[in-house]
């Protein structure tokens, strides 16, 4: 029986080999399957669509340029998954991608999705590159499969606070009081806790911290509370739709603080918001992900996105760069294999230059790129300008806002 | 936690304006209960369907939701009439517990149809007046809410006139009071049931048109309103039209004030505390006749 089984299997393998040989000889190297996980339905669908766009642009570029050379010109094949704007949806898609045999996964967008999906991927030793999710928990769980190219919460808030102090000092310290508005999920609540601890150390007084759910149907009460507190600064941390609603309601209620200083806010670095509601968006500042305006590829990519009648959102360059990171690691790994790819990702260094983020030489420690850094932007006259860091800023900050 | 009086005044006014539309949603629910003695579990799903209808009218045909309100009301009257006449009525076979299950089943079907057609995205329309304000003393009132309030009052008056002065209204009241008696004097009870269900659904269509300029729509959005509407119906008294409108205003103010004091995340807690309190202390509600 055993003998028969083995004999039959060898025979079948042999004949399969004979049949397949002529085909393989003429065909390309087998494609590398790359999972792209984004929430393209539900509350976060806009971000998900743009994340997907960035990843697709990178994959198209890699394939057009001859695929992964170290793997004999292997093309990258996208396995797309919709996280449906919740962690359960993300995990379900990771399971599907595992069944499809992907070599790595890129994406997630929101922190809760990234946390759950990367953990699910870790069970299969499946490399997971976070595109946006900033929660510091993501890279502090000891998961060797999880990498984040962009900056985490701690770095972003530190930079945001330093730049806020610099901004306020340069203007002669017009602001002292602050109201924090945040979404009540993992991202916003963590941000609010951190700001509450750090702002008083820097001479600001937090008058109140206001939480709201996502999606929120109404911002009137939040606006009313802000109006009664009359803060110098409003610091919001929310996703796109809620911040749009908040800023429009503040405009409606004629609330004009000296500055709206966002930290990792979905809308204030978003051209859709600037185009659709220019009055509400004007002079809003944000400390957020933003591509490097000095790199020629940034402008090319932006033109490609705008040629599709899409907006230029940070999700595009972040996902583009994350996919480029995986491609770079595959070149160095020289094998389409999860463990080798994980090792190669961890060993990424300054030689990786195909990304378009304004980061220094890449260096991963426990999965976090130490060079990841945010940029301060301000909406000025219908455009998004970089106001910090000074070495590539293209505008002076307008602060305090008067009138 | 002390807010200046003008802030509290504005929160109360906002609550009254929003509460009026809640009242209109509850009106349909309480009317159907008062006449058919059933709790319509498909109410939320029908509201969602009406909101999508108003969304499509605006997004695909450029029709302003306020203009679309009356045609949609007529359309949804027809939908409600047919649903009661062709589905709920025959399927119930005269048993209330059957009706409960039929409406629950209907809600699942409608919700999933919406999910299949429109996906799970939240959608909203942009109308030029969405962020306009009307100054009322120190308060700045949102234009869509003021319109919603005014329209609800008009619908309330229209319903009152219909119930009090028309033959159909008399027949509805007769069926509500004594079904067998009404049938004996020649009233077509099945027809009146369907008319009532149609009026309830038409109220939903108008609510949907009033909500859409300042609210988003997703396949499950109706549930959020129906929980509030159930609370209003219990507070106002099961089957009481006046109770629904007054209850709506009360719940609107409670929601707005608890949102102001407790924050948006906890704001809804006030509504459900009232729900439990009314059930404990005054189960007949404010205007409920039956014990």
- Biggest sheet layout of chain B: 2 strands, antiparallel
Number of helices of chain B: 11
Total of DSSP H or I helical runs spanning 4+ residues of chain A? 13
Quaternary structure: heterodimer
Task: Provide the helix percentage of chain B.
Answer: over 70%
Radius of gyration of chain A: 23 Å
- The ordered H/E elements of chain B are HHHHEEHHHHHHH
Look at the helices and sheets of chain A and give the structural class: alpha/beta
What's the pLDDT, averaged over the residues of chain A? Answer: 90
- The parts of chain B where pLDDT drops under 50 for at least 5 residues are none
> What is the terminal separation of chain A in angstroms?
90 Å
* Rounded radius of gyration of chain B (Å): 19 Å
Helix content of chain A: 40-55%
Tell me what portion of residues of chain B adopts beta-strand conformation.
under 5%
How many extended strands of chain B?
2
Please tell me what the overall shape of chain B is. globular
Sheet with most strands: strand arrangement of chain A: 7-6-8-9-10-13-14
Largest interface: A-B, 31 and 28 residues
| Main sheet: strands, sense, barrel of chain A | 7 strands, mixed
Provide an overview of this structure:
The complex is a heterodimer of chains A (403) and B (291). Chain A is α/β, with parallel strands linked by helices and 403 residues long. Helices cover 43% and strands 17% of the residues of chain A. Chain A contains 13 helices and 14 strands. Chain A has helices at 2-26, 45-64, 87-100, 111-122, 153-170, 186-198, 220-229, 240-252, 271-276, 278-281, 296-307, 315-333, 338-346, and strands at residues 32-38, 76-82, 104-107, 128-130, 146-148, 177-183, 205-212, 233-237, 259-263, 285-288, 364-365, 368-369, 375-380, 383-388. In chain A, the strands form 3 sheets. Chain A has a 7-stranded mixed beta sheet, sandwiched between helices. In chain A, strands 2-1-3-4-5 form a 5-stranded parallel beta sheet, sandwiched between helices. Chain A has a two-stranded antiparallel ribbon with strand order 11-12. In chain A, helix 3 (87-100) packs parallel to helix 4. Chain A is globular, with a radius of gyration of 23 Å. The N and C termini of chain A lie far apart (90 Å). The model of chain A is unreliable at 1-26 (pLDDT under 50). The longest helix of chain B is centred in the first third of the chain and has 32 residues, at 5-36. Chain B has a two-stranded antiparallel ribbon. Chain B has helices spanning 5-36, 43-61, 65-92, 96-118, 143-165, 167-177, 179-184, 189-211, 221-236, 241-262, 269-281, and strands at 133-136, 139-142. In chain B, strand 1 and strand 2 form a beta hairpin. At the A-B interface, strand 7, helix 7 and helix 8 of A face helix 1 and helix 10 of B.
């Amino acid at each position: 029986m055993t003998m028969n089984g083995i004999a039959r299997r060898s025979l079948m393998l042999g004949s399969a080999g004979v049949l397949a040989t002529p085909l393989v000889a003429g065909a390309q190297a087998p494609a590398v399957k790359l999972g792209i996980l984004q929430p393209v339905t539900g509350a976060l669908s806009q971000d998900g669509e743009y994340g997907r766009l960035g990843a697709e642009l990178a994959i198209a570029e890699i394939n057009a340029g001859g695929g992964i050379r170290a793997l004999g010109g292997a093309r990258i094949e996208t396995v797309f998954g919709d996280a449906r704007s919740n962690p359960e949806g993300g995990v379900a898609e990771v399971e599907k991608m595992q069944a499809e045999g992907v070599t790595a996964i890129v994406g997630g967008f929101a922190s809760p999705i990234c946390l759950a999906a990367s953990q699910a991927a870790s069970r299969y030793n499946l490399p997971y590159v976070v595109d946006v999710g900033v929660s510091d928990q993501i890279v502090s769980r000891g998961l060797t499969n999880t990498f984040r190219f962009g900056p985490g919460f701690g770095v972003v808030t530190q930079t945001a606070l330093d730049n806020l102090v610099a901004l306020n000092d340069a203007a002669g310290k017009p602001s002292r009081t602050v109201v924090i508005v945040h979404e009540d999920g993992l991202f916003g609540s963590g941000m609010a806790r951190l700001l509450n601890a750090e702002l008083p150390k820097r001479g600001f007084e937090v008058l109140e911290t206001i939480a709201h759910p996502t999606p929120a149907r109404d911002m009137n009460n939040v606006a009313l509370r802000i109006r009664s507190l009359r803060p110098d600064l409003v610091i919001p941390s929310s996703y796109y739709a809620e911040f749009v609603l908040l800023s429009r309601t503040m405009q409606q209620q004629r609330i004009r603080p000296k500055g709206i200083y966002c930290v990792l806010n979905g809308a204030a670095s978003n051209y859709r918001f600037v185009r659709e509601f220019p009055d509400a968006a004007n002079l809003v500042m944000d400390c957020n992900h933003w591509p490097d305006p000095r790199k020629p590829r940034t402008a090319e990519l932006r033109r490609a996105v705008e040629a599709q009648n899409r907006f230029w959102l940070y999700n595009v360059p972040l996902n583009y760069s994350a996919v480029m990171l995986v491609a770079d690691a595959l070149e160095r790994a020289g094998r389409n294999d999860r463990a080798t790819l994980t090792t190669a990702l961890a060993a990424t260094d300054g030689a990786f230059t195909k990304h378009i983020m304004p980061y220094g030489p890449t260096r991963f420690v426990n999965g976090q790129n130490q060079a990841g850094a945010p940029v301060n932007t301000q909406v000025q006259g219908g455009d998004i300008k970089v106001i910090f860091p000074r070495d590539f800023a293209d505008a002076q900050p307008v602060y305090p806002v008067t009138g | 936690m002390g807010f200046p009086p003008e802030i509290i005044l504005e929160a109360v006014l906002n609550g009254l304006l929003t509460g009026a539309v809640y009242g209109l949603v509850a009106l349909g629910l309480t009317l159907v209960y008062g006449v058919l003695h059933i709790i319509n579990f498909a109410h939320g799903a029908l509201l969602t369907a009406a909101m999508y209808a108003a969304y499509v009218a605006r997004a695909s045909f450029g029709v302003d939701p306020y203009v679309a309100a009356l045609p949609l009301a007529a359309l949804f009257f027809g939908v409600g009439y047919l649903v009661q006449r062709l589905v709920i009525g025959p399927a119930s076979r005269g048993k209330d517990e059957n009706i409960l299950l039929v409406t629950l089943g209907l809600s699942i079907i409608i919700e999933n149809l919406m999910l299949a057609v429109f996906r799970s995205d939240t959608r909203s329309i942009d109308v030029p007046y969405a962020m306009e304000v009307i100054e009322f003393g120190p308060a700045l009132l949102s234009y869509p809410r003021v319109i919603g309030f005014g329209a609800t009052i008009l619908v309330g008056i229209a319903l009152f006139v219909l119930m009090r002065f028309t033959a159909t209204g008399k027949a509805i009241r007769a069926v509500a009071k004594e079904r067998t008696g009404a049938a004996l004097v020649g009233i077509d009870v099945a027809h009146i049931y369907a008319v009532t269900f149609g009026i309830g659904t038409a109220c939903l269509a108008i609510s949907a048109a009033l909500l859409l300029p300042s609210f988003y729509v997703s396949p499950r959005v109706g549930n959020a309103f129906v929980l509030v509407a159930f609370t209003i119906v219990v507070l106002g008294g099961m089957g009481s039209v006046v109770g629904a409108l007054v209850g709506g205003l009360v719940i609107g103010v409670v929601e707005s004030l608890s949102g102001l004091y407790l924050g948006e995340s906890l704001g809804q807690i006030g509504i459900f505390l009232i729900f439990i309190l009314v059930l404990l202390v005054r189960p007949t509600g404010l205007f409920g006749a039956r014990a």
